């Protein structure tokens, strides 16, 4: 099953709601690939032995992994953390997230600075390119268990918008304007 994504209606309602436009404007995997978002659907029930995950990690150099349970009962300073995750930002490195349980939303900006909401659910793995403006929130289920993957030592530094002069942002914009061919692997 492919991931679900759509253009968001921007308003002040609960960030955990879907925020579909009326009418709905769905976004395809190829459209996500145009902004550099990669996607795989894997088997989260056996992630320790998943050969496809091992292959992805090896080919992309993801040598560090940890797990994050995000819910009010398991995360200290839950409300503050969720607020920080939902602040629009970039990273100097890719953000790789694999949903093992639960669900949540990653919002990314398209080439025209419009929000695309990506609903990740159990089995969805996405890679957000370095320099893309994005944010994260839970949906109304209020729970997600994520695998976080990194190249080398983990770095969680977020650079809040605006960051137009950040080297990662400049490189990302350059990749969009040069129309670098980014592959998408949909299952």
Question: Helix and strand layout, with pairings?
Answer:
Blueprint: E1 4-7, H1 29-34, E2 38-41, H2 51-60, E3 64-70, H3 78-85, E4 89-90, E5 95-109, E6 115-121, E7 124-128, E8 134-138, E9 144-150, E10 159-160, H4 167-177
Antiparallel strand pairs: 1-6, 2-7, 3-9, 4-10, 5-6, 5-7, 5-8, 5-9
Query: In the CATH hierarchy, what is the class?
Result: Mainly Beta
Spans with pLDDT under 50 lasting ≥5 residues? Answer: 180-187
CATH superfamily: Jelly Rolls
Q: What's the number of helices?
A: 4
Number of strand segments: 10
What are its keywords?
eight-stranded antiparallel sheet; 31% strand; alpha+beta; amino-acid biosynthesis; Jelly Rolls; cytoplasm; 19% helix; acireductone dioxygenase (Ni2+-requiring) activity; globular; oxidoreductase; disordered C terminus; two-stranded antiparallel sheet
Condensed summary:
The chain is α+β, with helices and mostly antiparallel strands and 187 residues long.
Description of the structure:
This protein is α+β, with helices and mostly antiparallel strands and 187 residues long. The protein has one domain: Jelly Rolls. The chain contains 4 helices and 10 strands, in the order βαβαβαβββββββα. Strands 1, 2, 3, 5, 6, 7, 8 and 9 form an 8-stranded antiparallel beta sheet that branches. Strands 4-10 form a two-stranded antiparallel ribbon.
């Amino acid at each position: 099953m492919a991931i679900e994504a759509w253009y968001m209606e921007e308003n002040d309602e609960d960030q955990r709601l879907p925020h579909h436009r009326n009418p709905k404007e769905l976004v395809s995997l190829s459209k996500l690939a145009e902004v550099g978002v990669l996607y795989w659907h894997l088997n989260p029930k056996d992630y320790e032995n998943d050969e496809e995950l091992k292959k992805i990690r090896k080919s992309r150099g993801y040598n560090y992994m940890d797990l994050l349970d995000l819910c009010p009962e398991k995360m200290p300073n839950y409300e503050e953390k969720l607020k920080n995750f939902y602040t629009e930002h970039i990273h100097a490195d890719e953000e790789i997230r694999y949903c093992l349980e639960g669900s949540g939303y990653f919002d990314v900006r398209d080439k025209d600075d419009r929000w695309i909401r990506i609903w990740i659910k159990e089995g969805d793995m996405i890679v957000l390119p370095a320099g893309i403006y994005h944010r994260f929130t839970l949906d109304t289920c209020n729970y997600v268990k994520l695998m976080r993957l990194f190249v080398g030592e983990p770095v969680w530094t977020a650079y809040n918008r605006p960051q137009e002069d950040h080297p990662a942002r400049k490189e990302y914009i350059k990749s969009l304007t040069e129309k670098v061919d980014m592959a998408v692997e949909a299952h």
